[in-house]
Amino acid sequence: MSAPTTAATSFAPNDPRDRLILALDVPTVAEAEAIVEATRGSVGVYKIGHQLVFSGGLGLAERLLKAGEKVFLDVKLLDIDNTVAHGIESIAALGPTFVTLHAYPKAMRAAVAAKRKVGGSLTLLGVTVLTSMDDADLAEAGYAGTVKGLVATRAAQARAAGMDGLVCSPEEAGALRAIVGPDMLLVTPGVRPAGAAAGDQKRVMTPEAAIRGGSDLLVVGRPILAATDRRAAADAIVAEIEAGLKAR
């Protein structure tokens, strides 16, 4: 059994719960706050994405951070270099643990430079290819290659740019570890407990298999949000994470 990979970033998962990121994919802050209260202590990080960002989510992020929770701002930045850089400076001042940007080389280099300029502990995650996309979707978007090829290219570019980690499908984690080495975090959505519906995700894996395969942190939304007992659902996924760590 090999030791779990530890990324050389400001974020170090010391407990299996630290590796569970709960996606607060709900339309209102009130709903998100209820979910936080129902899962506090069973979840390591709370992710705030576009739906919630535009309905008061940044204020919620500030309150969660003040309460000692870890926050993942999933805003997937992509713009001209100057705009990305200034966005990272403002986000770093807010104080979340993670932020995402699309893994385009210029955007990543601008983000890394901005982070180095302001300092702090912000962890920059590059989104390679969205887990809702397959080869046919890439072709429709005008890409000539495959998902596998594009993910590998962007992973190598992220490492060269000095990014802290990547967001990728759990199916890709093992191959990406060979590209990026041991020091970058691999954060994987598209995780579904055994028997759960895949939804709109096309590249999925169970929590235990994802961790065993090389993922560092897992993003889970609907399997917890739709559960009758959200804390129990989160605890069950943490148990799967722990099993995956033991099997590495």
UniProtKB/TrEMBL annotation:
Entry's Gene Ontology molecular function annotations: orotidine-5'-phosphate decarboxylase activity
CDD domains: OMP_decarboxylase_like (cd04725)
PROSITE patterns noted in UniProt: OMPDECASE
Keywords annotated in UniProt: Decarboxylase, Lyase, Pyrimidine biosynthesis
A single GO cellular-component term on record: cytosol
EC number(s) on file: 4.1.1.23
InterPro entries given in the database record: Aldolase_TIM, OMPdecase, OMPdecase_AS, OMPdecase_bac, OMPdeCOase_dom, RibuloseP-bd_barrel
Catalytic residue list: D74 (for ompdecase activity), K76 (for ompdecase activity), K76 (proton donor), D79 (for ompdecase activity)
Repressor as UniProt keyword: no
Catalysed reactions, semicolon-separated: orotidine 5'-phosphate + H(+) = UMP + CO2
Residues at which substrate binds: 25, 47, 74-83, 131, 192, 201, 221-222
Taxonomy, superkingdom: Bacteria
GO biological process: 'de novo' pyrimidine nucleobase biosynthetic process; 'de novo' UMP biosynthetic process
Quaternary structure and partners: Homodimer.
PANTHER family in the record: OROTIDINE 5'-PHOSPHATE DECARBOXYLASE (PTHR32119)
Family the UniProt entry places it in: Belongs to the OMP decarboxylase family. Type 1 subfamily.
Record-linked NCBIfam families: PRK00230.1, pyrF
Protein name: Orotidine 5'-phosphate decarboxylase
Species lineage: Bacteria, Pseudomonadati, Pseudomonadota, Alphaproteobacteria, Hyphomicrobiales
